[in-house]
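Problem: given the chain below (86 residues), write out its structure.
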Amino acid sequence: MNLFFKIKPLLKSAEAEREMATMKEDFERAKQELARSEARRKELEEKMVSLLQEKNDLQLQVQSVSTCLVRIETRSNTEAPAGAWM
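Solution.
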């Protein structure tokens, strides 16, 4: 019985060391996953900025073309007599 009381703290210590090692491994994995996630987030943010800029450029082009079409339609309606196209 006396031997059991001497060994029991050693067993608890070994168990605590195993738990600590497991926790350290989990922490390292979580750190690596966080680094990957942050890199992916940054990559996606940069892509989003690029796509927003492209979208804005395309909207400006559409607006410019629409304005030109309105001008052309206005000119053709004012310059051509009624029924001239037929």
